[in-house]
Amino acid sequence: MNPKITKEHLLLFIYNELKASEVKELKHELKYNTDLRLQYNELVNTVKDLDLLWESPNPTTLKIIDEKAHDGFSEMV
Questions:
Q1: Alpha-carbon gap, residue 31 to 43, rounded angstroms
Q2: Rounded to whole angstroms, how far apart are CA atoms 74 and 61?
Q3: Of 22, 47, 55, 59, which residue has the fewest beta carbons closer than 10 angstroms?
Q4: What is the dihedral of CA 45, 46, 49, 51, to 10 degrees?
Q5: Distance CA 74, CA 57 (A)
Q6: Residue 6 DSSP one-character state
Q7: H helices within the chain, ranges in order?
Q8: What is the pLDDT of residues 26-73, one digit of tens each?
């Protein structure tokens, strides 16, 4: 792997936030560097997995927040 290319560069590339001047070099490295391409693919899969994770707050937590908000509003009136 090109030591100038880090996981941070790969993540920026995945999220389309890598500087335009660095994109060409990164694409070239991905084409010819198997280790870097494997690392990139692993990060892409991780990002996809994270995007699928969505947890809703526990209903009890929402109830407590609602009650506290209501209590605070009652005190103001």
A1: 16
A2: 20
A3: 55
A4: -110
A5: 25
A6: -
A7: 7-14, 20-32, 34-52, 59-76
A8: 999 999 999 999 999 999 999 998 888 777 788 899 899 998 888 766
